[in-house]
Amino acid sequence: MIISLVYIAACVLLIVGIKKLSKPATARQGNFLSALAILIAVIAVFFENDVVQSWNTSNWIQNGYLWCFAGLIIGSVIGAVWAKKVQMTGMPELVAIFNGFGGLASALVAFSQYLKDPLSDDIVASVAIGLTIFIGALAFTGSVLAWGKLSERITGRAVVFKGQKPINLCLLITAIAAMVVYAIPGIDAQLKLAVIIVLSAVSLIFGFTLVLPIGGGDMPVVISLINSFTGLAAATAGFIISNTMLVVSGCLVGASGMVLTLIMCKAMNRSIGNLLFSGFGAVDAVSSKGPASEPKSITSEDAYLILEAAQSVVFIPGYGMAVAQAQHVVKELAEKLEANGAEVSHAVHPVAGRMPGHMNVLLAEADIPYEQLKTMDEVNPAMPITDVAIVIGANDVVNPAAQTDAASPIYGMPIIKAHEAKTVFVLKRGKGRGFSGIDNELFYYPNTLMIYGDAKATISALAGEFAAE
Fold first, then answer.
1. What φ, ψ does residue 345 adopt, rounded to 5°?
2. Catalytic residue numbers?
Protein backbone atom coordinates (compact mmCIF):
# COMPACT_ATOMS: atom_id res chain seq x y z
CA MET A 1 0.00 0.00 0.00
CA ILE A 2 2.77 2.41 0.99
CA ILE A 3 4.77 1.62 -2.16
CA SER A 4 1.70 2.29 -4.30
CA LEU A 5 1.29 5.69 -2.65
CA VAL A 6 4.96 6.44 -3.27
CA TYR A 7 4.50 5.60 -6.97
CA ILE A 8 1.44 7.86 -7.14
CA ALA A 9 3.40 10.69 -5.50
CA ALA A 10 6.24 10.19 -7.97
CA CYS A 11 3.77 10.26 -10.88
CA VAL A 12 2.26 13.53 -9.65
CA LEU A 13 5.73 15.01 -9.17
CA LEU A 14 6.67 13.97 -12.71
CA ILE A 15 3.51 15.54 -14.17
CA VAL A 16 4.22 18.80 -12.35
CA GLY A 17 7.83 18.70 -13.51
CA ILE A 18 6.92 18.19 -17.16
CA LYS A 19 4.34 20.97 -16.90
CA LYS A 20 7.01 23.35 -15.63
CA LEU A 21 9.24 22.46 -18.60
CA SER A 22 6.81 24.30 -20.88
CA LYS A 23 8.04 27.73 -19.72
CA PRO A 24 11.65 29.00 -19.73
CA ALA A 25 11.21 30.64 -16.31
CA THR A 26 10.31 27.33 -14.63
CA ALA A 27 12.14 24.85 -16.89
CA ARG A 28 15.10 24.34 -14.55
CA GLN A 29 12.79 23.62 -11.62
CA GLY A 30 10.74 21.29 -13.82
CA ASN A 31 13.83 19.35 -14.82
CA PHE A 32 14.81 18.91 -11.16
CA LEU A 33 11.32 17.76 -10.12
CA SER A 34 11.13 15.27 -13.01
CA ALA A 35 14.52 13.80 -12.15
CA LEU A 36 13.55 13.60 -8.47
CA ALA A 37 10.34 11.75 -9.39
CA ILE A 38 12.28 9.11 -11.32
CA LEU A 39 14.81 8.75 -8.47
CA ILE A 40 12.00 8.17 -5.97
CA ALA A 41 10.45 5.55 -8.27
CA VAL A 42 13.79 3.75 -8.70
CA ILE A 43 14.34 3.61 -4.94
CA ALA A 44 10.75 2.42 -4.38
CA VAL A 45 11.37 -0.61 -6.60
CA PHE A 46 13.76 -2.05 -4.00
CA PHE A 47 11.05 -1.92 -1.32
CA GLU A 48 8.36 -3.84 -3.21
CA ASN A 49 7.23 -6.99 -1.39
CA ASP A 50 8.69 -9.56 -3.77
CA VAL A 51 12.01 -7.70 -3.85
CA VAL A 52 12.21 -7.34 -0.06
CA GLN A 53 11.41 -11.03 0.42
CA SER A 54 14.29 -12.10 -1.79
CA TRP A 55 16.69 -9.62 -0.26
CA ASN A 56 19.04 -11.22 2.26
CA THR A 57 22.76 -11.46 2.79
CA SER A 58 23.01 -15.00 1.48
CA ASN A 59 21.70 -14.52 -2.01
CA TRP A 60 21.90 -10.81 -2.83
CA ILE A 61 24.64 -11.36 -5.43
CA GLN A 62 22.84 -14.35 -6.91
CA ASN A 63 19.59 -12.36 -7.22
CA GLY A 64 21.31 -9.64 -9.19
CA TYR A 65 21.21 -6.80 -6.68
CA LEU A 66 24.94 -6.28 -7.01
CA TRP A 67 24.41 -5.50 -10.69
CA CYS A 68 21.51 -3.18 -9.86
CA PHE A 69 23.52 -1.07 -7.44
CA ALA A 70 26.59 -1.17 -9.65
CA GLY A 71 24.46 0.06 -12.55
CA LEU A 72 22.98 2.87 -10.46
CA ILE A 73 26.37 4.07 -9.30
CA ILE A 74 28.20 3.73 -12.62
CA GLY A 75 25.32 5.25 -14.59
CA SER A 76 24.98 8.17 -12.18
CA VAL A 77 28.70 8.94 -12.34
CA ILE A 78 28.82 8.75 -16.14
CA GLY A 79 25.69 10.87 -16.50
CA ALA A 80 26.91 13.53 -14.07
CA VAL A 81 30.39 13.78 -15.57
CA TRP A 82 29.11 13.76 -19.15
CA ALA A 83 26.47 16.41 -18.49
CA LYS A 84 28.96 18.56 -16.57
CA LYS A 85 31.63 18.49 -19.24
CA VAL A 86 29.49 18.83 -22.34
CA GLN A 87 29.57 22.24 -24.02
CA MET A 88 26.32 23.90 -25.06
CA THR A 89 27.31 23.26 -28.67
CA GLY A 90 27.34 19.55 -27.87
CA MET A 91 23.98 19.51 -26.09
CA PRO A 92 21.93 18.41 -29.14
CA GLU A 93 24.02 15.29 -29.73
CA LEU A 94 24.04 14.55 -25.98
CA VAL A 95 20.24 14.65 -25.94
CA ALA A 96 20.16 12.42 -29.02
CA ILE A 97 22.45 9.75 -27.56
CA PHE A 98 20.63 9.79 -24.20
CA ASN A 99 17.40 9.15 -26.09
CA GLY A 100 19.10 6.16 -27.68
CA PHE A 101 20.21 4.75 -24.34
CA GLY A 102 16.63 5.04 -23.07
CA GLY A 103 15.34 3.03 -26.02
CA LEU A 104 18.06 0.41 -25.61
CA ALA A 105 17.30 0.06 -21.90
CA SER A 106 13.62 -0.61 -22.64
CA ALA A 107 14.51 -3.18 -25.31
CA LEU A 108 16.82 -4.96 -22.86
CA VAL A 109 14.04 -5.07 -20.25
CA ALA A 110 11.82 -6.80 -22.82
CA PHE A 111 14.56 -9.24 -23.82
CA SER A 112 15.29 -10.11 -20.19
CA GLN A 113 11.60 -10.83 -19.62
CA TYR A 114 11.69 -13.20 -22.59
CA LEU A 115 14.71 -14.99 -21.10
CA LYS A 116 12.91 -15.24 -17.76
CA ASP A 117 9.91 -17.03 -19.28
CA PRO A 118 10.60 -17.98 -22.92
CA LEU A 119 7.54 -20.25 -23.18
CA SER A 120 5.01 -17.78 -21.82
CA ASP A 121 1.63 -17.84 -23.62
CA ASP A 122 0.44 -14.56 -22.11
CA ILE A 123 -0.70 -12.66 -25.22
CA VAL A 124 -0.65 -9.22 -23.54
CA ALA A 125 2.88 -9.75 -22.27
CA SER A 126 4.01 -11.11 -25.65
CA VAL A 127 2.60 -8.11 -27.51
CA ALA A 128 4.25 -5.76 -25.02
CA ILE A 129 7.60 -7.53 -25.40
CA GLY A 130 7.42 -7.35 -29.19
CA LEU A 131 6.47 -3.66 -29.24
CA THR A 132 9.14 -2.75 -26.69
CA ILE A 133 11.91 -4.49 -28.62
CA PHE A 134 10.74 -2.94 -31.90
CA ILE A 135 10.36 0.65 -30.65
CA GLY A 136 13.34 0.54 -28.29
CA ALA A 137 15.79 -0.89 -30.83
CA LEU A 138 14.53 1.51 -33.51
CA ALA A 139 14.98 4.48 -31.17
CA PHE A 140 18.48 3.31 -30.25
CA THR A 141 19.98 3.09 -33.74
CA GLY A 142 18.02 6.11 -34.93
CA SER A 143 19.42 8.14 -32.04
CA VAL A 144 22.96 6.93 -32.64
CA LEU A 145 22.71 8.01 -36.28
CA ALA A 146 21.22 11.38 -35.26
CA TRP A 147 24.11 11.79 -32.81
CA GLY A 148 26.57 11.10 -35.63
CA LYS A 149 24.93 13.66 -37.90
CA LEU A 150 24.71 16.33 -35.21
CA SER A 151 28.31 15.84 -34.07
CA GLU A 152 29.36 15.83 -37.77
CA ARG A 153 31.12 12.49 -37.41
CA ILE A 154 29.14 11.60 -40.51
CA THR A 155 27.57 13.85 -43.11
CA GLY A 156 24.65 15.91 -41.88
CA ARG A 157 23.03 15.78 -45.32
CA ALA A 158 20.19 13.45 -46.13
CA VAL A 159 21.45 10.21 -47.66
CA VAL A 160 19.10 8.54 -50.11
CA PHE A 161 19.59 5.55 -52.38
CA LYS A 162 17.54 3.67 -54.93
CA GLY A 163 14.86 1.47 -53.40
CA GLN A 164 15.16 3.06 -49.97
CA LYS A 165 11.42 3.45 -49.36
CA PRO A 166 10.55 -0.12 -50.46
CA ILE A 167 13.32 -1.42 -48.22
CA ASN A 168 11.94 0.51 -45.25
CA LEU A 169 8.46 -0.81 -46.02
CA CYS A 170 9.77 -4.39 -46.13
CA LEU A 171 11.57 -3.92 -42.82
CA LEU A 172 8.41 -2.56 -41.21
CA ILE A 173 6.27 -5.42 -42.54
CA THR A 174 8.85 -7.96 -41.36
CA ALA A 175 8.89 -6.43 -37.88
CA ILE A 176 5.10 -6.45 -37.65
CA ALA A 177 4.99 -10.07 -38.86
CA ALA A 178 7.60 -11.06 -36.27
CA MET A 179 5.60 -9.42 -33.47
CA VAL A 180 2.43 -11.22 -34.58
CA VAL A 181 4.16 -14.62 -34.75
CA TYR A 182 5.77 -14.10 -31.33
CA ALA A 183 2.38 -13.38 -29.77
CA ILE A 184 0.83 -16.64 -31.05
CA PRO A 185 0.28 -18.99 -28.05
CA GLY A 186 1.91 -22.41 -28.08
CA ILE A 187 4.59 -21.86 -30.72
CA ASP A 188 7.85 -23.78 -30.49
CA ALA A 189 10.57 -22.41 -28.17
CA GLN A 190 13.18 -22.39 -30.95
CA LEU A 191 10.81 -20.52 -33.24
CA LYS A 192 10.19 -17.93 -30.50
CA LEU A 193 13.93 -17.40 -30.12
CA ALA A 194 14.38 -17.07 -33.88
CA VAL A 195 11.53 -14.55 -34.06
CA ILE A 196 13.04 -12.47 -31.23
CA ILE A 197 16.41 -12.42 -32.99
CA VAL A 198 14.85 -11.44 -36.32
CA LEU A 199 12.71 -8.74 -34.69
CA SER A 200 15.71 -7.27 -32.87
CA ALA A 201 17.89 -7.23 -35.99
CA VAL A 202 15.20 -5.78 -38.24
CA SER A 203 14.31 -3.09 -35.69
CA LEU A 204 17.94 -2.03 -35.33
CA ILE A 205 18.33 -1.78 -39.10
CA PHE A 206 15.01 0.04 -39.49
CA GLY A 207 16.04 2.74 -37.01
CA PHE A 208 19.16 3.35 -39.06
CA THR A 209 17.44 3.44 -42.47
CA LEU A 210 14.62 5.61 -41.11
CA VAL A 211 16.93 8.44 -39.99
CA LEU A 212 19.50 8.11 -42.80
CA PRO A 213 17.44 10.05 -45.39
CA ILE A 214 16.71 12.93 -42.98
CA GLY A 215 18.86 16.02 -43.44
CA GLY A 216 20.60 17.97 -40.69
CA GLY A 217 18.16 20.86 -40.94
CA ASP A 218 15.41 18.55 -39.69
CA MET A 219 17.36 17.20 -36.71
CA PRO A 220 15.41 19.19 -34.07
CA VAL A 221 12.21 17.49 -35.18
CA VAL A 222 13.91 14.09 -35.43
CA ILE A 223 15.22 14.36 -31.86
CA SER A 224 11.73 15.22 -30.64
CA LEU A 225 10.20 12.30 -32.56
CA ILE A 226 12.77 9.79 -31.31
CA ASN A 227 12.23 11.09 -27.79
CA SER A 228 8.57 10.24 -28.24
CA PHE A 229 9.52 6.73 -29.40
CA THR A 230 11.73 6.28 -26.34
CA GLY A 231 8.81 7.24 -24.10
CA LEU A 232 6.53 4.75 -25.82
CA ALA A 233 9.14 2.01 -25.42
CA ALA A 234 9.37 2.80 -21.69
CA ALA A 235 5.57 2.66 -21.38
CA THR A 236 5.33 -0.77 -23.04
CA ALA A 237 8.23 -1.97 -20.86
CA GLY A 238 6.17 -0.86 -17.88
CA PHE A 239 3.38 -3.20 -18.96
CA ILE A 240 5.88 -6.06 -19.16
CA ILE A 241 7.09 -5.71 -15.58
CA SER A 242 3.80 -4.29 -14.21
CA ASN A 243 5.37 -1.03 -13.08
CA THR A 244 2.85 1.83 -12.89
CA MET A 245 5.47 4.57 -12.72
CA LEU A 246 7.18 3.34 -15.88
CA VAL A 247 3.88 3.24 -17.75
CA VAL A 248 2.88 6.74 -16.63
CA SER A 249 6.29 8.33 -17.25
CA GLY A 250 6.61 6.62 -20.63
CA CYS A 251 3.17 7.78 -21.72
CA LEU A 252 3.94 11.35 -20.60
CA VAL A 253 7.24 11.45 -22.46
CA GLY A 254 5.74 9.78 -25.52
CA ALA A 255 2.75 12.12 -25.67
CA SER A 256 4.71 15.32 -24.96
CA GLY A 257 7.35 14.34 -27.51
CA MET A 258 4.71 13.72 -30.17
CA VAL A 259 2.94 17.01 -29.41
CA LEU A 260 6.24 18.87 -29.69
CA THR A 261 7.01 17.07 -32.94
CA LEU A 262 3.68 18.13 -34.42
CA ILE A 263 4.23 21.73 -33.26
CA MET A 264 7.64 21.81 -34.89
CA CYS A 265 6.34 20.24 -38.09
CA LYS A 266 3.66 22.93 -38.19
CA ALA A 267 6.35 25.57 -37.70
CA MET A 268 8.08 24.17 -40.79
CA ASN A 269 4.83 23.74 -42.72
CA ARG A 270 5.60 20.05 -43.19
CA SER A 271 3.99 16.77 -42.23
CA ILE A 272 5.71 13.96 -40.34
CA GLY A 273 5.50 11.85 -43.49
CA ASN A 274 7.28 14.54 -45.50
CA LEU A 275 9.90 14.83 -42.78
CA LEU A 276 10.63 11.09 -42.75
CA PHE A 277 10.42 10.28 -46.43
CA SER A 278 11.14 13.41 -48.49
CA GLY A 279 14.94 13.19 -48.37
CA PHE A 280 15.12 16.91 -47.64
CA GLY A 281 18.70 18.16 -48.04
CA ALA A 282 19.95 15.16 -50.00
CA VAL A 283 21.39 17.36 -52.72
CA ASP A 284 22.67 20.88 -52.82
CA ALA A 285 19.65 23.15 -52.94
CA VAL A 286 20.03 26.66 -54.32
CA SER A 287 17.30 29.19 -54.78
CA SER A 288 16.02 29.07 -58.34
CA LYS A 289 16.33 32.84 -58.53
CA GLY A 290 20.05 32.79 -57.87
CA PRO A 291 22.07 35.66 -56.39
CA ALA A 292 22.21 38.81 -58.48
CA SER A 293 25.47 39.91 -56.83
CA GLU A 294 27.79 39.27 -53.92
CA PRO A 295 26.38 40.06 -50.46
CA LYS A 296 27.35 43.47 -49.07
CA SER A 297 29.59 43.34 -46.01
CA ILE A 298 30.62 45.88 -43.39
CA THR A 299 32.88 46.07 -40.37
CA SER A 300 31.75 46.10 -36.75
CA GLU A 301 32.77 49.78 -36.56
CA ASP A 302 30.35 50.66 -39.36
CA ALA A 303 27.63 48.49 -37.81
CA TYR A 304 28.03 50.37 -34.53
CA LEU A 305 27.16 53.69 -36.21
CA ILE A 306 23.85 52.18 -37.39
CA LEU A 307 23.09 50.58 -34.03
CA GLU A 308 23.81 53.80 -32.16
CA ALA A 309 20.89 55.46 -33.92
CA ALA A 310 18.53 52.49 -33.68
CA GLN A 311 15.39 52.75 -31.56
CA SER A 312 14.39 49.08 -31.90
CA VAL A 313 16.63 46.03 -32.29
CA VAL A 314 15.70 42.36 -32.65
CA PHE A 315 18.25 39.60 -32.13
CA ILE A 316 17.53 36.41 -34.13
CA PRO A 317 19.76 33.59 -32.84
CA GLY A 318 20.63 30.36 -34.62
CA TYR A 319 23.12 27.52 -34.31
CA GLY A 320 25.96 29.94 -35.08
CA MET A 321 25.37 31.60 -31.73
CA ALA A 322 25.73 28.21 -30.02
CA VAL A 323 28.96 27.45 -31.89
CA ALA A 324 30.46 30.82 -30.96
CA GLN A 325 29.10 30.63 -27.38
CA ALA A 326 27.95 34.21 -27.96
CA GLN A 327 24.85 34.26 -25.75
CA HIS A 328 26.57 36.12 -22.90
CA VAL A 329 27.97 38.88 -25.12
CA VAL A 330 24.53 39.11 -26.77
CA LYS A 331 23.14 40.00 -23.37
CA GLU A 332 25.94 42.52 -22.87
CA LEU A 333 25.21 44.20 -26.20
CA ALA A 334 21.47 44.16 -25.50
CA GLU A 335 22.06 45.96 -22.20
CA LYS A 336 24.21 48.57 -23.97
CA LEU A 337 21.46 49.11 -26.55
CA GLU A 338 18.81 49.49 -23.86
CA ALA A 339 20.98 51.99 -22.02
CA ASN A 340 21.24 53.87 -25.31
CA GLY A 341 17.43 54.07 -25.51
CA ALA A 342 16.67 51.18 -27.87
CA GLU A 343 13.90 48.62 -27.36
CA VAL A 344 15.43 45.13 -27.51
CA SER A 345 13.86 41.72 -28.07
CA HIS A 346 15.00 38.24 -29.05
CA ALA A 347 13.05 36.35 -31.71
CA VAL A 348 13.16 32.56 -31.31
CA HIS A 349 11.98 30.28 -34.11
CA PRO A 350 10.59 26.88 -32.98
CA VAL A 351 13.20 24.94 -35.01
CA ALA A 352 16.21 27.24 -34.59
CA GLY A 353 19.33 25.33 -33.60
CA ARG A 354 19.71 21.58 -33.60
CA MET A 355 17.38 20.45 -30.84
CA PRO A 356 13.97 21.55 -29.53
CA GLY A 357 14.31 24.71 -27.43
CA HIS A 358 18.02 25.06 -28.23
CA MET A 359 17.97 28.86 -28.43
CA ASN A 360 15.74 29.21 -25.36
CA VAL A 361 18.26 27.20 -23.34
CA LEU A 362 21.17 29.36 -24.49
CA LEU A 363 19.41 32.66 -23.85
CA ALA A 364 18.18 31.48 -20.44
CA GLU A 365 21.74 30.45 -19.58
CA ALA A 366 22.79 34.07 -20.21
CA ASP A 367 19.99 35.32 -17.90
CA ILE A 368 18.30 37.27 -20.66
CA PRO A 369 14.91 38.48 -19.32
CA TYR A 370 12.12 36.12 -20.30
CA GLU A 371 9.87 39.01 -21.32
CA GLN A 372 12.36 39.84 -24.07
CA LEU A 373 11.98 36.38 -25.65
CA LYS A 374 9.47 36.62 -28.48
CA THR A 375 7.93 33.93 -30.62
CA MET A 376 7.83 34.15 -34.39
CA ASP A 377 4.16 35.18 -34.33
CA GLU A 378 4.84 37.91 -31.78
CA VAL A 379 7.79 39.50 -33.53
CA ASN A 380 6.78 39.33 -37.21
CA PRO A 381 4.03 42.01 -37.14
CA ALA A 382 6.50 44.54 -35.71
CA MET A 383 9.36 43.67 -38.06
CA PRO A 384 8.59 46.39 -40.69
CA ILE A 385 9.04 49.10 -38.03
CA THR A 386 12.14 47.48 -36.53
CA ASP A 387 15.29 49.51 -37.12
CA VAL A 388 17.81 46.65 -36.97
CA ALA A 389 17.48 42.87 -37.04
CA ILE A 390 20.65 41.04 -36.01
CA VAL A 391 20.77 37.47 -37.36
CA ILE A 392 23.35 35.40 -35.47
CA GLY A 393 24.12 32.21 -37.34
CA ALA A 394 20.53 31.45 -38.39
CA ASN A 395 19.78 30.30 -41.93
CA ASP A 396 16.54 28.55 -42.95
CA VAL A 397 14.42 30.24 -40.27
CA VAL A 398 15.02 33.68 -41.86
CA ASN A 399 15.25 32.66 -45.53
CA PRO A 400 12.74 34.68 -47.64
CA ALA A 401 12.77 31.89 -50.23
CA ALA A 402 10.30 30.11 -47.98
CA GLN A 403 7.78 32.77 -49.03
CA THR A 404 8.96 33.85 -52.47
CA ASP A 405 10.45 30.85 -54.28
CA ALA A 406 8.13 27.94 -55.06
CA ALA A 407 11.13 25.90 -56.24
CA SER A 408 12.83 26.09 -52.85
CA PRO A 409 12.74 22.95 -50.65
CA ILE A 410 11.58 25.09 -47.71
CA TYR A 411 8.81 26.88 -49.63
CA GLY A 412 5.80 27.41 -47.36
CA MET A 413 7.78 27.17 -44.12
CA PRO A 414 6.87 29.99 -41.68
CA ILE A 415 9.91 32.18 -41.05
CA ILE A 416 10.97 35.12 -38.92
CA LYS A 417 10.63 37.97 -41.41
CA ALA A 418 14.00 39.58 -40.77
CA HIS A 419 14.10 40.84 -44.36
CA GLU A 420 11.28 43.28 -43.53
CA ALA A 421 13.40 45.18 -41.00
CA LYS A 422 14.88 48.49 -42.09
CA THR A 423 18.42 47.11 -41.74
CA VAL A 424 19.55 43.51 -41.31
CA PHE A 425 22.94 42.50 -39.91
CA VAL A 426 23.87 38.89 -40.65
CA LEU A 427 26.70 37.57 -38.48
CA LYS A 428 28.32 34.63 -40.22
CA ARG A 429 31.64 32.78 -39.97
CA GLY A 430 32.07 32.52 -43.74
CA LYS A 431 30.30 32.51 -47.07
CA GLY A 432 29.13 28.88 -46.91
CA ARG A 433 25.55 27.70 -46.61
CA GLY A 434 23.82 26.63 -43.45
CA PHE A 435 23.59 23.09 -42.06
CA SER A 436 20.71 22.21 -44.40
CA GLY A 437 22.69 23.26 -47.47
CA ILE A 438 20.15 25.79 -48.78
CA ASP A 439 21.31 29.15 -50.10
CA ASN A 440 19.75 32.09 -48.24
CA GLU A 441 18.14 34.85 -50.30
CA LEU A 442 18.30 37.18 -47.30
CA PHE A 443 22.04 37.62 -47.81
CA TYR A 444 21.43 39.37 -51.14
CA TYR A 445 18.67 41.75 -50.06
CA PRO A 446 19.52 45.46 -50.43
CA ASN A 447 18.90 46.11 -46.73
CA THR A 448 21.14 43.22 -45.61
CA LEU A 449 24.72 43.80 -44.45
CA MET A 450 27.00 40.84 -43.74
CA ILE A 451 29.48 40.90 -40.86
CA TYR A 452 31.88 38.00 -41.36
CA GLY A 453 33.87 36.43 -38.55
CA ASP A 454 33.35 34.84 -35.16
CA ALA A 455 29.98 35.98 -33.80
CA LYS A 456 31.23 36.29 -30.23
CA ALA A 457 34.13 38.51 -31.26
CA THR A 458 31.89 40.64 -33.49
CA ILE A 459 29.22 41.23 -30.83
CA SER A 460 31.88 41.85 -28.19
CA ALA A 461 33.44 44.47 -30.47
CA LEU A 462 30.04 46.15 -30.93
CA ALA A 463 29.47 46.21 -27.18
CA GLY A 464 32.98 47.62 -26.77
CA GLU A 465 32.15 50.49 -29.12
CA PHE A 466 29.24 51.47 -26.87
CA ALA A 467 31.43 51.21 -23.78
CA ALA A 468 34.00 53.50 -25.38
CA GLU A 469 31.51 56.35 -25.76
1. -145, 165
2. 396
